[in-house]
Amino acid sequence: MNIIKQVVRIKYGERAAKTSCKAARLLLSRLFHDGRVEVNSEEQEVVIALGSNVGDRVHNFDDALERMKKSGIEITRHGCLYETEPAYVTDQPRFLNSAIRGVTKLDPRKLLEKLKEIERDMGRTAGIRYGPRPIDLDILFYGSRMVNTDTLTIPHERIWERPFVMAPLIDLLGLHTDNDTVKSWHLLSRNSGGIVEAWQKLGGESLIGKDGMERVLPVGDRLWSWSKNTSIMGILNVTPDSFSDGGKFLSVEAAVSQVRSMLMEGADIVDLGAQSTRPMASQLSPEQELDRLIPVLEAVKGMPEMEGKLISVDTFHSQVALEAVSRGADLVNDVSAGQLDSEMHSVVAALRTPYVAMHMRGDPSTMQNHENLEYDDVNADVAFELYTRVRDAEVSGIPAWRMIIDPGIGFSKNTEQNLDILMGLPDIRSEIAKKSVAISHAPLLVGPSRKRFLGEICGRPVAAERDPVTVASVTAGVLGGANIVRVHNVRDNRDAVKLCDAMLQRRRT
């Protein structure tokens, strides 16, 4: 079909497509630049695809992002990370693929030069087309322009046939279009339903997890495909005042013994916390928290049984996060999502470690105040507030592919609101997707274990007696889309998770 008619049909309708070639030419004159490149006086929004299949692929991505920032590209959004089978030339290692949105004052020609310079500096050499490379950087979109020269075509000519490009491109969007530039990208897809329809025509979300394409999260020295099986995060509180097991594991010996038991029972992650976040808990300084945490962390890290397992540090202090990761922790689990320490996001970004951002209002001493329990729609409000904090983290340099989201069951919620969240996990994802598809795809963690609302419902005032109802709440969470469950009793919840995973797998097949 004539491209002029196609563009006008999408933007103006069937009648305009048939009768207004003049309008079409005016529209395309704004988009198409006949090979001319210009120096921009204003920033332009761009989309750049990344690929790597040589060397340390995750490090290559991190290195490329830093080099792009230094070259005049401000990165504003990241797609998810995909491990994919190679295309075109199939006898080569698997690729990592993603994409970023950013803004730059570089004109298209200069932007291309900078990206090619980054590729060369990172070791890419001339070789087989579509062959192995440490980094591959392609301009997918540049503002609302079309460019067609001997060296550069925008939009990239093969976007629409490549699932490994389309998936991260979709991630960079919200289901609600956020500006006119994004509208122009949808227009350039040549589909009435925009980029979303183009993705669906390829197979859409059904492609993920099959045909050699997986959504992954880099953690430790591996890529974690979290959607295959639900992960168990076992809780270890090295505190005298936690609501459930405070004082039980203060000594290194007791802590190691408990970790060994959790690992034998099937824990995938051990979550170490040295500061209580129960309601009205007193707050420790970072130094006090580290005094409790580090001896246990070092002992646990040295356990032979930890081979292949992960350690998470439960803290809202950036100083604690920095020290814990330097001593071997694999994840940072922040109940405040950066609200209680303004340095947290920048520190985690520099550490290049996964980040659990949890929803909470206020701090542990104020989170259950009346004003912090007021919601118009708890799921919509939690989704919006959690998205806002994750966006702050992303702008600070934590890519979406390192994010884990937690709606914060028991934090700034009453019993009814906790129930609404447990039943509304898909709604929370859907609300976040309106703003960012990438963040809506992030692994979802829930932690209802032994929480007070379970005791209120079942008449169990003693936290340790709430394990059966915890199993029920974990079951609801997993069936609602949770990818990680944080629990005290690993053994019983592991069985519940196995059943849920088997049910979900049965549903998929």
TrEMBL record:
PROSITE patterns documented for this protein: DHPS_1, DHPS_2, HPPK, PTERIN_BINDING
Listed name of the protein: Dihydropterin pyrophosphokinase / Dihydropteroate synthase
SUPFAM superfamilies the UniProt entry points to: 6-hydroxymethyl-7,8-dihydropterin pyrophosphokinase, HPPK, Dihydropteroate synthetase-like
GO molecular function annotation: 2-amino-4-hydroxy-6-hydroxymethyldihydropteridine diphosphokinase activity; ATP binding; dihydropteroate synthase activity; kinase activity; metal ion binding
Matching Pfam families: HPPK, Pterin_bind
Annotated transmembrane regions: none
InterPro entries noted in UniProt: DHP_synth-like, DHP_synth_dom, Dihydropteroate_synth-like_sf, Hppk, Hppk_sf, Pterin-binding_dom
Cofactor: Mg(2+)
Statement: the UniProt record of this protein carries the keyword Membrane: no
Signal peptide feature range: none
Catalytic activity: 6-hydroxymethyl-7,8-dihydropterin + ATP = (7,8-dihydropterin-6-yl)methyl diphosphate + AMP + H(+); (7,8-dihydropterin-6-yl)methyl diphosphate + 4-aminobenzoate = 7,8-dihydropteroate + diphosphate
Provenance organism: Perilla frutescens var. hirtella (Perilla citriodora)
Similarity section: In the C-terminal section; belongs to the DHPS family.
Gene Ontology BP annotations: folic acid biosynthetic process; tetrahydrofolate biosynthetic process
Keyword annotations from UniProtKB, A to Z: ATP-binding, Folate biosynthesis, Kinase, Magnesium, Metal-binding, Multifunctional enzyme, Nucleotide-binding, Transferase
Domain Pterin-binding residue range list: 230-498
Pathway in which this enzyme or protein is active: Cofactor biosynthesis; tetrahydrofolate biosynthesis; 2-amino-4-hydroxy-6-hydroxymethyl-7,8-dihydropteridine diphosphate from 7,8-dihydroneopterin triphosphate: step 4/4; Cofactor biosynthesis; tetrahydrofolate biosynthesis; 7,8-dihydrofolate from 2-amino-4-hydroxy-6-hydroxymethyl-7,8-dihydropteridine diphosphate and 4-aminobenzoate: step 1/2
